[in-house]
User: Which sequence fits this backbone?
């Protein structure tokens, strides 16, 4: 299945290259197209995740109130979910559905055989790592995690901030140590920017942020 998706994405990448004449622009157009197709799934996922964060203080009160009665606790939590119209499965189900597409896109750009040496902006070769692109990718990764943390509880907010910093550093470090090509970094950077825009839209529409 992954190879089938890789073949489709390769065809689209080459189509964008033929009309733009630049692999950097072709990668950006391909990522934007994929993210637009996946938009309904990621929108539902982000909304569910943010709502679950929002009600964490209420869940903790219920856990304290019904600490000796697990059945009552589960019943009250489900009522809370119904009140806020939260489907717990929506936090991970959309991610599972879109995961094969994102893996196929990553595999395509990691092993793609370019017809000519791909250059873009300051990068002379997208098949080699680029430190500036890596830093930009890490910064957008951090702000994406920060924007998705909407907990009002100070303790939870502090823990989320620490987790976000650790995950951003680890993720960026993984790209550095494995010498991931700039073409893949460009894919991840554009994807992060699209994610930030989508998170902003979700906050405005559902949380008045």
Assistant:
């Amino acid at each position: 299945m992954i190879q089938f998706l890789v073949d489709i994405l390769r065809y689209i990448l080459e189509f964008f290259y033929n009309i733009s004449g630049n692999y950097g622009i072709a990668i950006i157009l391909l990522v934007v197209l994929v993210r637009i197709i996946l938009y309904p799934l990621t929108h539902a996922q982000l909304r569910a995740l943010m709502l679950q964060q929002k009600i964490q203080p209420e869940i903790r009160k219920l856990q304290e109130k019904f600490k000796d009665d697990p059945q009552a606790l589960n019943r009250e939590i489900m009522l809370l979910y119904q009140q806020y119209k939260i489907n717990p499965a929506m936090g991970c189900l959309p991610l599972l559905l879109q995961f094969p597409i994102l893996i196929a896109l990553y595999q395509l750009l990691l092993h793609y055989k370019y017809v000519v040496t791909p250059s873009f902006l300051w990068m002379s070769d997208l098949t080699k790592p680029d430190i500036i692109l890596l830093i930009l990718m890490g910064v957008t990764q951090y702000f994406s995690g920060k924007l998705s943390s909407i907990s009002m509880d100070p303790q939870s907010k502090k823990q989320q901030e620490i987790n976000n910093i650790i995950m951003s550093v680890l993720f960026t470090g993984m790209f550095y140590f494995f010498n991931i090509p700039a073409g893949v970094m460009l894919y991840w950077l554009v994807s992060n920017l699209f994610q930030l825009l989508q998170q902003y839209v979700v906050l405005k529409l559902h949380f008045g942020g």
Remarks:
- The chain has a mean pLDDT of 84.
- The two ends are 39 Å apart (CA to CA).
